[in-house]
């Protein structure tokens, strides 16, 4: 993976040299340009800095990204999977406008205006992928993630879901919510490969990396 990690700093090799996406700093190393990846803005950066080790995104990887927003994390996956492709799904037209501008500069991302809880509506637009990434911060997000995994994940692919306990139930202890969502994933036939908490970057969040059980 073309990721630079040193101490608490993480960066990706910039596939659009000279261009920033969200105001991040650029730097050069060994004649290559990198973009700093802000773990306070991207849960995937936070997960990597907190020790996520089994998710190696290949240069040719294809990803379905649920909850792309304006493309902060999507842009870093686009750097890593530079010869791959990202279907970036988002249901807010306001965020979509910015996401479309990002896609104009990065040909390995396709924006899709759609609802992650209704995957059959974009069945004709998305092919099978190596990675499904879910960060929609909604109460029913684990169900939406499972439905998308069942429809779009290649047999050997990985899924990653970022769970914010307060989006599911503000009155429950985060640990209880995490256990409940983990149980749901296991009952639906998925194996938890890794779980990583996202503090100090994100409070009461956990990242589950999952695979199909055969
Ligand atoms: C926490 S933000 C995502 C941040 C983004 N993943 C990043 O790291 O750059 C959650 C996003 O999910 C979107 N969202 C929420 N529910 C959704 C749904 N059912 N389908 C598609 N997008 C959804 C929201 O509009 C919001 O942009």
TrEMBL record:
Annotated Pfam families? Fibrillarin
The regions listed as transmembrane in this protein's record are none
Claim: Methyltransferase is one of the keywords in the record: yes
Sorted alphabetically, which InterPro entries does this protein's record hold? Answer: Fibrillarin, SAM-dependent_MTases_sf
Q: Record-annotated residues binding S-adenosyl-L-methionine?
A: 72-73, 90-91, 115-116, 135-138
The Enzyme Commission number assigned here is 2.1.1.-
Class of the enzyme per the UniProt entry, highest EC level: transferase
Q: What are the alphabetically sorted keywords of the record?
A: Methyltransferase, RNA-binding, rRNA processing, Transferase, tRNA processing
The lineage's top-level taxon is: Archaea
Tell me the Gene Ontology biological-process terms attached to this UniProt entry. Answer: box C/D sno(s)RNA 3'-end processing; tRNA processing
Please give the subunit comment from the record.
Interacts with nop5. Component of box C/D small ribonucleoprotein (sRNP) particles that contain rpl7ae, FlpA and nop5, plus a guide RNA.
Q: Which family does it belong to?
A: Belongs to the methyltransferase superfamily. Fibrillarin family.
What exactly does this protein do? Involved in pre-rRNA and tRNA processing. Utilizes the methyl donor S-adenosyl-L-methionine to catalyze the site-specific 2'-hydroxyl methylation of ribose moieties in rRNA and tRNA. Site specificity is provided by a guide RNA that base pairs with the substrate. Methylation occurs at a characteristic distance from the sequence involved in base pairing with the guide RNA.
Give the protein's recorded name.
Fibrillarin-like rRNA/tRNA 2'-O-methyltransferase
